[in-house]
Design a protein that fits this description.
Beta-Lactamase; 52% helix; 6 strands; 8 helices; alpha+beta
């Protein structure tokens, strides 16, 4: 390179070329540490900070984001463990039941303890069930949307559905959960949980526990129902 070309080179050195060079040579500042003494990066809040300070700040922010993500994963793991414990205890409880009535009574008691619901109601379809747990045919229309969805509904739910499950107590319920009980497309009944608080059961709450709870309850009801019919 001639002296004249070396003198004119800065005229052609653009920001884009500098950026491209640094990207291609990420170890540049390791080989030229003295440049760091005079290099500064503008700070968003005003003033300037050295490149090293900027890098430390970026790393600190990344570390904070990773810590937050790790905390979220730990919380999810604890929640899964809690849900698993609830389901295990309920399964053990249902194994002690001798008939459908015992299944319903034990489930209601377990849910009041485990989920801390103020009201628990299980209504089953079919004339063979006693009045206390029977869901009259006239009330089925209130649950058409629930069975159509095939999954739990949470939050502030329609009054007709709440009245069908909880009777006069429906007016005191601020939030609720409705769980359809069905096997192979055959409707068995509905499980309802109610709370005075409008914040207790929210529309966006996880339904993992509720779904598996419904499966356990449905399987137990079906087992004892089949056994009772076979003994007749």
């Amino acid at each position: 390179m001639t002296a004249s070309s070396a003198q004119t080179e800065p005229d052609y050195l653009t920001d884009a070329l500098v950026e491209a060079y640094l990207r291609d040579h990420p170890d540049f500042f390791e080989r030229h540490e003295s440049v760091l003494d005079v290099l500064h990066v503008p700070h968003p809040a005003g003033g300037s900070i050295s490149l090293i300070e900027r890098q430390v700040r970026v790393l600190r922010d990344k570390h904070g984001a990773l810590e937050q993500r790790l905390g979220e994963l730990v919380d999810h793991a604890r929640e899964n463990e809690r849900v698993g414990s609830h389901l295990h205890r309920l399964a053990c409880t249902l194994m002690q039941a001798e008939d459908v009535d015992a299944v319903l009574a034990l489930t209601q008691e377990a849910l009041r303890d485990e989920v801390q619901a103020e009201w628990v109601s299980i209504r089953l379809i079919g004339a063979e069930h006693g009045e206390l747990h029977q869901l009259p045919a006239a009330d089925l229309n209130a649950f058409e949307d629930l069975f159509g969805r095939g999954r739990p509904q949470c939050g502030r739910l329609p009054r007709p559905a709440l009245e069908a499950l909880f009777g006069a107590e429906a007016e005191n319920i601020g939030s609720a959960i409705l769980m359809p009980l069905a096997v192979d497309g055959n409707r068995i009944g509905v499980l309802g949980l109610g709370s005075r608080s409008s914040e207790r059961f929210l529309p966006d709450m996880g339904i993992y526990f509720l779904t598996h709870l419904g499966e356990l309850l449905t399987a137990s009801i079906r087992y004892h129902g089949d056994r009772a019919r076979s003994s007749v």
